[in-house]
Amino acid sequence: MKVRVHVSLKPGVLDPQGRAVHHALEGLGFAGVNDVRVGRLIELEVADDTTDATLDDMCRRLLANGVVENYRVERV
Amino acid sequence: MGLRAAVITFPGSNCDRDMAVALEQVSGTAPLRVWHADATLPDRLDLIALPGGFSYGDYLRSGAMAATSPIMRAVVEAAGRGVPVLGVCNGFQVLTEAGLLPGALLRNAGQTFICRTVPLVVENSTSLFTAGYSAGQRIRIPVAHHDGNYFADDATLDRLEGEGRVAFRYVDTCNGSQRDIAGVLNEAGNVLGMMPHPERAVEDDHGGTDGRALFEAAIRQLA
Q1: Interchain CB contact of B109 with A (< 8 Å)
Q2: Which residues pair with B49 in a beta bridge?
Q3: Which of B81, B124, B147, B176 has a C-alpha 20 to 30 A away from that of B113?
Q4: Confidence of residue B1 (pLDDT cuts 50, 70, 90)
């Protein structure tokens, strides 16, 4: 089974990378971009019987840093 | 009796030798060298040092992979018993990822790698590692990092300040760190993480020796 883990910076945490991408988009002439936040997508191939609790544990212990990041698990 | 210290080397550490040389120069005893895949630490350690570098190529997040390595379980256990732990630069990142220190180290606010000697203010002069300085003293220590932007929520920052656990602060805004924090202590005071490199400021040839007092203070109390 394929699982996607979407990791994003928590609101309020400064994202200099997103800010730089925002500037670059403006430099390319794209108007109307109000904000850019850069996150991370992690794709896992796991056993079909992997529980939500186990996936959550993976996220909390390694895939995301709960101090600054949120995560969302998506079973594909 | 000499200092019985251990310097941990992760794949991608690059300041482990600098740390070992600094400890040997100040204490007179060469530290033990420990590899990340070791499951146990040497016994009766006086001090554990986590060096700077780019462990595991900074994959996932700086320090995240190293925090899961076998030796870190032993380091966390030793720290819990009160063994002093010093984490510098990547070592600081590893300590936050391992949960030994609060907060996280994000990409520098200016997006650039910062490599220069910066002035710091010593905020806490009573801990094991900072007792060689006086409170409010200004020292000059090199920084060299891309991910040194210290972040913690306001409640955590207030607690750190209230408990005297901010060890060092940047005099000038350096990397976007909350409240210009450059180094923090754990609750018990035996774990210090800092982005600046005291081991790069122990000999005249380094261009400054302001880091020496950190090692001297710890060694005086431990050896």
Answers
A1: yes
A2: B7, B86
A3: B124
A4: low
Catalytic residue among B36, B145, B197, B206: B197
B199 labelled catalytic: yes
- Subunit contact A16:B110, Cβ cutoff 8 A: yes
ipTM at complex level: 0.88
Domain of A68, CATH number, reads: 3.30.1280.10
Instruction: Write out the residue range of the structural domain in which residue A60 sits.
Output: 2-75
What is the pTM for the complete model shown?
A: 0.95
Query: Chain A within 8 Å of B64 (Cβ-Cβ)?
Result: yes
Render pLDDT for B112-140 as a digit per residue (tens, 0 to 9): 999 999 999 999 999 999 999 999 999 99
Confidence of residue B2 (pLDDT cuts 50, 70, 90): confident
Which has the closest alpha carbon to B176: B115, B121, B108? B108
pLDDT tens figures, B87-103:
999 999 999 999 999 99
